[in-house]
Amino acid sequence: xxxxxxxxxxxxxxxxxxxxxxxxxxxxxxxxxxxxxxxxxxxxxxxxxxxxxxxxxxxxxxxxxxxxxxxxxxxxxxxxxxxxxxxxxxxxxxxxxxxxxxxxxxxxxxxxx
Amino acid sequence: xxxxxxxxxxxxxxxxxxxxxxxxxxxxxxxxxxxxxxxxxxxxxxxxxxxxxxxxxxxxxxxxxxxxxxxxxxxxxxxxxxxxxxxxxxxxxxxxxxxxxxxxxxxxxxxxxxxxx
Lengths: 113, 117
Prior knowledge:
The structure holds two protein chains of two kinds. By secondary structure, chain A is mainly β. Chain A has no helices and eleven strands. Helices cover 0% and strands 60% of the residues of chain A. The relative contact order of chain A is 0.34. Chain B is 0% helix and 49% strand. In chain B, the strands form two sheets. In chain B, strands 2, 4, 5, 6, 9, 10 and 11 form a seven-stranded mixed sheet that branches. In chain B, strands 1-3-8-7 form a four-stranded antiparallel sheet, with no helix packed on it. The A-B interface holds A 31-32, 34, 36, 41-45, 48, 50, 88, 90, 92, 94, 97-106 and B 31, 33, 35, 40-45, 48, 50, 56-59, 90, 97-99, 101, 103-111.
């Protein structure tokens, strides 16, 4: 059975800290891995990763994929209170049908002033 | 403004009373999908659609139906709702279906919170 596991499930840090969120997966016919940020309402897209070892970066956020070890990390440097959210990892696989996107349970990040 | 619009945003209903949650996108996206989000279980895919008249089951399709008669609309139908369908539902769309490779960026609606008594 395809699965995506995120860790930790929750994390509390102080402003200015650097955090690393983890996402491991076991899927048939991996296609891509995606990161989303969910604040109070709908998830918003952060990154899509398809190739190993190529870092994607946006401001203080960065992410990288390891297709050999089947995981990805999301780094946030110099955290701010506005980074508080649930971070979701999702993997597209074609073990069943194309278009099936499997989400992890998310990591809840709380950044304290 | 590019958006995915869901209605209703909040609904309380009773067991067995058929309901439809509408979803519409104005971005000419091919791919659309429905998810439910429950505490401790994360987001789970119910149904998805690669294009008009093409739909497929996700991980938790039982108790739901969908249709894709037009590109912009992808309604979620609960023929006979039960309390275990109480959840937060999200509709999402993407320019190309994810397997197409050009983008995996899903645009989500604001969510529909459904309570079945």
